Amino acid sequence: MNHPAPPHAEDLAGATVAITGGTGSFGAVMARHLLEEGVAQVNVFSRDEAKQDLMRRSFNDERMRFFLGDVRDADSVRPAFTGADFVFHAAALKQVPSCEFFPQQAVKTNIVGSHNVIETAAASGVRALVCLSTDKAVYPVNAMGMSKALMEKTAQAYARNNPTSGMTVSVTRYGNVLYSRGSVIPAFVAQLHAGQPLTLTEPTMTRFLMSLQESVELVKHAFLNARPGDLFVKKAPASTVDTLARAVWGLLSEDEPDVRVIGMRHGEKLHETLLSREEFVKAEDQGDFFRVPLDDRGLQYEKYFTEGEDAVSHVADYASDNTERLDVAATQALLRTIPEVVEELARR
Ligand SMILES: O=c1ccn([C@@H]2O[C@H](COP(=O)(O)OP(=O)(O)O[C@H]3O[C@H](CO)[C@@H](O)[C@H](O)[C@H]3O)[C@@H](O)[C@H]2O)c(=O)[nH]1
């Protein structure tokens, strides 16, 4: 393949960058970062005009442009990508339960919508596109993860099938973002405030933990290092749900922890996987990150017989039950780096 060279950090200065799902928490942190890097324009693309209005006021920066639309509708995506050098694709249906009950909605947004984003970006002359995925796309058991897995395949197929494209498309996967909207930590904090026991689904369940800032670092790393079709993950520690509950409780209360085990929810897994063993065996260690290059074997089937992979049986998945495990004190140290936790502690 004739790869376009990855962009340099300096290329951001004066660039136009579009963010799909740009009014979400990732979009806000990324937009702030891009403005600090001196971009000429940030095109925020999203469905929600009220959130766009809030963001417009809170940023109050004339380099921001807001585009209303839905990734399901390619025509609505085009204006946001016209003239854009780079695109970060964060628009998605991300909640496990809602996708479980309405899987066809996940197909429309996460698969068809991502395809629209990829094709429109390429047709608009975008140089680099990073698609955000999740650990739930590996060995997926729920509709959200399944649809994200197919988004990944769509991105990789674009790279494989368009070897002369001037656009580099890559994928990042990350685990649970601490304190993200609707996630377990704000739920625990609300329960604590209400004087209720913390509801534990399954105490031994493990999750990779990372901050929103780290998710931006991962996406930035992909942006600066990707070859077409690459997949990136950030090395991350994990904790059990029991540890997480005790860490939150210990930070915010002097009383003995009060927890109630409620059992696993629809579509949940005991442990998450960031890289399957098949990916891990091909992964390049890049310090804080792993890079998995595109499997760009073509339709020459004989290669599948003569160039097989024998190392795969000797390695394990990179999963939340075999990564660095945080105890209560280490989880609390991580929590103290989260702005919402800092605010919560300051209120006490
Ligand atoms: O009251 C609760 C709620 C959740 N959990 C557990 O806490 C962990 C984290 O749950 P949650 O914060 O809801 O995250 P996930 O279900 O793992 O999914 C989140 O993390 C994904 C990334 O892996 C995102 O893509 C999803 O949007 C986001 O909901 C899981 O083990 C849950 O079983 C509890 O113990 N008690």
UniProtKB/TrEMBL annotation:
<feature type="domain" description="UDP-glucose 4-epimerase CapD C-terminal">
    <location>
        <begin position="295"/>
        <end position="341"/>
    </location>
</feature>
<protein>
    <recommendedName>
        <fullName>UDP-glucose 4-epimerase</fullName>
        <ecNumber>5.1.3.2</ecNumber>
    </recommendedName>
</protein>
<comment type="similarity">
    <text>Belongs to the polysaccharide synthase family.</text>
</comment>
<dbReference type="Pfam" id="PF02719">
    <property type="entry name" value="Polysacc_synt_2"/>
</dbReference>
<dbReference type="Pfam" id="PF08485">
    <property type="entry name" value="Polysacc_syn_2C"/>
</dbReference>
<dbReference type="InterPro" id="IPR003869">
    <property type="entry name" value="Polysac_CapD-like"/>
</dbReference>
<dbReference type="InterPro" id="IPR013692">
    <property type="entry name" value="CapD_C"/>
</dbReference>
<dbReference type="InterPro" id="IPR036291">
    <property type="entry name" value="NAD(P)-bd_dom_sf"/>
</dbReference>
<dbReference type="InterPro" id="IPR051203">
    <property type="entry name" value="Polysaccharide_Synthase-Rel"/>
</dbReference>
<feature type="domain" description="Polysaccharide biosynthesis protein CapD-like">
    <location>
        <begin position="17"/>
        <end position="292"/>
    </location>
</feature>
<keyword id="KW-0413">Isomerase</keyword>
<dbReference type="GO" id="GO:0009103">
    <property type="term" value="P:lipopolysaccharide biosynthetic process"/>
</dbReference>
<dbReference type="GO" id="GO:0003978">
    <property type="term" value="F:UDP-glucose 4-epimerase activity"/>
</dbReference>
<keyword id="KW-0448">Lipopolysaccharide biosynthesis</keyword>
